[in-house]
Amino acid sequence: GAQGSQLAEGWNHGSRSVSTDLVLERCDLELEANGRDHHTADLCREKLVVRRGQPFWLTLHFEGRNYEAGVDSLTFCAVTGPAPSEDAGTKARFGLSDAVEEGAWVATVVDQQDSALSLQLRTPASSPIGLYRLSLEASTGYQGSSFVLGHFTLLFNAWCPADAVYLDSDEERREYILTQQGFIYQGSAKFIKGIPWNFGQFEDGILDICLMLLDVNPKFLRNAGRDCSRRSSPVYVGRVVSAMVNCNDDQGVLLGRWDNNYRDGISPMFWIGSVDILRRWKNDSCQRVKYGQCWVFAAVACTVLRCLGVPTRVVTNYNSAHDQNSNLLIEYFRNENGIPESKAIWSLGFRLRVVELWKILEVPPSPQPRLVLPFSSSQPGTYCCGPVPVRAIKVGDLSTKYDAPFVFAEVNADVVDWIRQDDGSMHKSINHSLVVGQKISTKSVGRDEREDITHTYKYPEGSAEEREAFTRANHQNKLADKEETGVAMRIRAGQGMNRGSDFDVFAHITNNTAEDHAGCLLLCARTVSYNGILGPKCGTKDLLNFSLEPFSEKSIPLRILYEKYCDYLTESNLIKVRGLFVEPAANSYLLAERDIYLENPEIKIRILGEPKQNRKLVAEVSLWNPLTVPLSGCTFTVEGAGLTKEQKTVEIPHPVEAGEEVKVRVDLLPLNAGRHKLVVNFESDRLKAVKGFRNVIVNTS
Prior knowledge:
six-stranded mixed beta sheet, protease, 39% strand, 37 strands
């Protein structure tokens, strides 16, 4: 609390009068001043939360008389964890000092008036983070008493140059630690869609939940003293959080599921923020929350790490390869129509989500050192991956901790397609449409825009630096010359690719040779989940006598009908379109694929009234039904840091007819001055996981 305990234990080994004892009346932990100085004001309403390596204030109020230097002795004791130890760095005893000693706990007198003593306490920048108890031993001669001053939570400090997580950019500190809303990128590499997310790391109770998450991790349960000591390292804390956001081998937060069967839980696409997930986990006694997928794992980890003071951002990699045998090669085996007939040696997912942690200690050093923490299992039965320096991935240094070969493969693996004929023979096809590690995306600093950070993970394609990285990583497939035939094919998207509509896609084929090319062209479209599981066909076209004249090009349309995909489209809104051009005379196979993202209808959010400080507002939320059938079971879910105390759900009691607009109103909390973001999710029987957001700028007057 704001004031420490007044309970004291006394001892008396001398003849001095008890009336001369130094007796503490109360301790003021100066929540307002410390919250402002340590950028923890949202966390310091009822308890003290400070950042390591930076001084914080407290005021001791004594009864009868004040502290007298040379007469009284004050010794402080700070402890964390169930088995505090000075050797482990989880216990510190220190007295008053005029000098600031780097790497040590220090208390300094700042001011002394009447019976009040104002102090500054400084913690080492390498202290373990967590909940501390602070006590005082006050002695005069042979007499003394001990007092519990209170409790405080210590966080990592990106504002402190001596802290391993230090960031020198104030804009980046504001974005990667203090900002409570952001975007996670979905869709496909050719159609990237930003989904709003409420991280909410400073919402009520979230810090306590993050500390609870650390205290139920298996390493703490095995050896609590060692675990608490190792919480001085952001790398160690990152690995613990990576393991604890899933529940596969511990009491983790989320259960993953990828089969589109979420009836006994909540679809991963439903979530619009981390706060509801973390509160559910805590309120259900650390029971797993159903369900999550990689972006949900990454977003929850981002919330926890930002809350604990580690600068963190969520990153999306499009076309990610998952290593199973460490040969940096994905092999697809397909039938004569180009349909995958068995599992690839690797699996290829559309998107990998990671969180990046800023850290000062990296070899080799770079101007913006970062560690990447992927949300995939690098080894069978292991549910913790990374972190590994981003720089190591770029230069192909696979000897670096942790899981560098796995992460390097996620963004650099090569793809080979084999076509199996009726006689069982295998023929290698040419497929330049699928490149692993594309459009690596994250939210821009200070803006609601996407930033492409592919260049931080990979050198430009074909550059000498890229070839050097592949050589260092022994990536022989990438070093080999690519086979070229002079005939190329790509899948192009048409106009109006909205959910509920019919639309065209095109196979665009170019002949850059002086020869005729003839064979059969097979086009097929199928619904697909975000991790590559194919659904039924929703469009096909077979041209058995297709020819290309020398130096010519053709564009062949494929019509995709809503009635064909409506019952099978997953919540990721993706359709995979594949073209296969087979030339029997040349024994040549040309393959092209593309993932088409269908746009959801727009959620419109209107703020009624002028946003002013401490004024209640109302949000009007609406959506138009774009389908040809009614929507039933419609609900709007709304949340936003500083805008709603808890997630709010508004159910629509009647069906929403085709072409009809549905509209609801939601009451908001009285707002603080600044920038807020309202995040909305819409669900129904036929239209799911439709997201929207609205920025709310609150003026002071």
